[in-house]
Design brief:
Blueprint: H1 2-28, H2 40-52, H3 54-77, E1 128-130, H4 141-144, E2 150-153, H5 159-175, E3 179-181, H6 197-200, H7 203-209, E4 216-217, E5 231-233, H8 241-247, H9 249-255, E6 257-260, H10 273-286, H11 291-307, E7 311-315, H12 320-326, H13 333-344, H14 355-360, H15 368-377, E8 385-389, H16 396-406, E9 410-411, H17 413-416, H18 419-426, H19 429-442, E10 445-448, H20 453-464, E11 470-471, H21 475-483, H22 490-500, E12 526-528, H23 537-551, H24 567-571
Parallel strand pairs: 2-3, 2-6, 3-4, 5-6, 7-8, 7-10, 8-9, 10-11
Antiparallel strand pairs: 1-12
Helix pairs in contact: 5-10, 11-19, 12-13, 15-16
GO molecular function: glycosyltransferase activity
Family: Belongs to the glycosyltransferase GT106 family.
Keywords: Carbohydrate metabolism, Fucose metabolism, Glycosyltransferase, Membrane, Transferase, Transmembrane, Transmembrane helix
């Protein structure tokens, strides 16, 4: 490059000198002998050559100059691939290993790819709608309920785990012909939220909306002028109607008041259609947050919409409690094992885990970096705005750095709302979780990084209200892909991600009826417009097969600690 530049400069000087000498010679009308490198003949020959070929020479010089300018521009704005790039150029035969920080230096926009469709909606979603009205044969509360028979419920877990208990409590009361007392929320669990039902949910709306289905009262009336202490029972998980009639009804008839404790997933997943529709009426219509929570949640959504026309809400679920409970390991050495091991001991029933097996089976949340790479491979560019619903992420900013590098427009309720605005919610994990629930429900695309309670609840809700895109990582397949990611091009990687994610994107008919938890797949409450072919047969087959594989993975009883803001205190004990 330097030799070419030097040669060009010398040629330009030579041509300029020749022109000056020629004009001077003609003006003086004299003959001057010019010795160039000791040869007059050489000068004359060179002059004739330049004169005859002057157009070609100047064209050649102009072309060379243009190429040099182009090379200079490209070297500044498009640096050549280096060892810092995460994926190799397509035709490269070199293989190398990169670290997390090097992922930030790769420009994914040029090769991100897409799914060949609108990333923000489904073309077929308009052909489906939620339908949960009771049929004419469904007995109403005033015809079915027996007097002086009261059912009380003590829920368990975080906000969304308690939500499942509230929904099933209404159905259980209907099965038992009992009056339901407003459920008592869990205030004794690890996260110590003292909120009662009426501080999170609109209790009057709840009672009014369900009045035709089940009679609901705010508190148990006194018996003979004295406080009434109900009989406590714990029913087995997945208890069906016959189970309730056998185990609970005799006690209820005898004592007239029964409290079911630790009430989460205590009702069968499979019920008749009318009871399933009752579940949907409770979940999608009767359970409405209080006005302060709704107002703040809508404000968060509006602020995200002001930043971009579309945005993603990500339930990252990479808090220490989740990693400890799942028994996963992410390469943090003895420090990570000690910290997560101490938290895991709080659940006495958990056995020793095999981290490699757990992750291989797809039961571990993806790391923040892996989530970012998956989204980029699906076609979402770095200009996309992401709202992250999360508590304290394990590893803090160091864990989040790759995700923020891939998606710099990174937001949370703490970044788009002031401390003063969040003050009335920030001391209560359930109310903070409710705010995230609203944003994740209203977002254009919801991404769930695990199959826990919030993910299932929102997946079902988004199906019911228009099949809005809901992405669940196919963690089992992606685990193997991430292990081998440094041995393939970005195009190969993104193509495989898109293939593996078929059946995990929240499309209509993605899951077979009856598959998965009903709250995630409320098939009895999903109706389809008649006479419309909504999905090609091949795509439907692929989606069902992938869904079956996903559901075959055993889903443990997630301890849904949605927000553990004091986890650092636990880790420092």
């Amino acid at each position: 490059m330097e030799n070419i530049m030097t040669t060009l400069k010398e040629l330009k000087k030579l041509i300029f000198s020749l022109k000056i000498r020629r004009k001077k010679s003609e003006r003086n009308n004299t003959t001057t002998t010019i010795h160039l490198h000791g040869s007059n003949g050489f000068y004359i020959g060179l002059k004739l050559i330049f004169w005859r070929k002057r157009r070609r020479v100047f064209s050649f010089i102009s072309a060379i100059s243009g190429c040099l300018l182009l090379l200079l521009f490209s070297s500044v704005y498009f640096p050549p691939p280096t060892a810092n790039n995460l994926f190799l150029p397509r035709h490269s035969s070199v293989r190398h290993v990169v670290n997390v920080r090097e992922a930030l230096e790769y420009n994914f926009e040029a090769s991100g790819g897409n799914l060949g469709r609108d990333l923000w909606s489904w073309s077929q979603s308009t052909f489906y709608y939620g339908c949960s009205n009771a049929s004419k044969t469904f007995q109403t509360a005033n015809r079915k309920k027996l007097p002086d028979r009261y059912l009380l419920i003590a829920t368990s877990g975080g906000l969304n785990q308690q939500r499942t208990g509230i929904i099933d409590a209404v159905v259980a009361a209907y099965i038992l012909n009992a009056t339901l007392v407003i459920p008592r929320l869990d205030q004794q669990s690890y996260w110590k939220d003292t909120s009662c039902f009426a501080e999170i949910f609109d209790v009057n709306w709840f009672i009014s909306y369900l009045s035709r289905d089940v009679e609901i009262i705010k508190e148990l009336p006194p018996k003979g002028g004295k406080a009434w202490i109900p009989r406590t029972i714990r029913v087995p998980r997945k208890c069906d109607p016959t189970c309730y009639e056998t185990r609970v009804l005799p006690v209820l008839n005898r004592t007239q008041a029964v409290e079911l404790t630790k009430f989460d997933y205590r009702l069968s997943n499979r019920l008749d259609t009318e009871l399933q529709k009752l579940r949907c009426r409770v979940n999608y219509h009767a359970l409405r947050f209080t006005d302060p929570i709704l107002k703040m949640g809508k404000l968060l959504v509006e602020r995200m919409k002001m930043k971009a026309k579309y945005f993603i809400a990500l339930h990252l679920r990479f808090e220490p409690d989740m990693l400890a409970f799942s028994g996963c390991y992410y390469g943090g050495g003895d420090k990570e094992r000690a910290e997560l091991g101490a938290i895991r001991k709080r659940w006495k029933t958990l056995h020793a885990s095999n981290p490699e097996k757990v992750r291989r089976n797809g039961k571990c949340p993806l790391t923040p970096e892996e989530v970012g790479l998956m989204l980029r491979a699906l076609g979402f560019g770095s200009d996309v705005h992401i709202y992250v619903a999360s508590g304290d992420v394990y590893g803090g900013e160091e864990s989040l750095a790759p995700l923020k590098g891939l998606f710099p427009n990174f937001h949370s309720k703490q970044t788009i709302a002031t401390k003063e605005e969040l003050a009335q919610f920030s001391s209560f994990s359930g109310r903070m979780a409710a705010l995230d629930y609203i944003v994740c429900d209203e977002t254009d695309v919801f991404v769930a990084n695990n199959n826990g309670n919030m993910a299932r609840m929102l997946a079902g809700r988004r199906r019911y209200f228009g099949h809005k895109p809901t992405i669940r990582p196919n963690a089992r397949k992606l685990y193997k892909l991430f292990l081998d990611r440094n041995n393939m091009t970005w195009e190969e990687f993104s193509s495989r991600v898109r293939t593996y994610q078929i059946g995990f994107m929240g499309e209509p008919n993605e899951m077979k009826p009856g598959k998965g938890e009903f709250h995630e797949n409320p098939d009895s409450c999903l109706c389809q417009a008649r006479g419309i072919e909504t999905i090609e047969e091949k795509n439907r087959k692929d989606a069902v097969e992938m869904s079956d594989e996903y559901q075959s993975i055993e889903d443990p009883d997630w301890i849904d600690v949605d927000y553990l803001y004091k986890i650092e205190e636990v880790m420092s004990d």
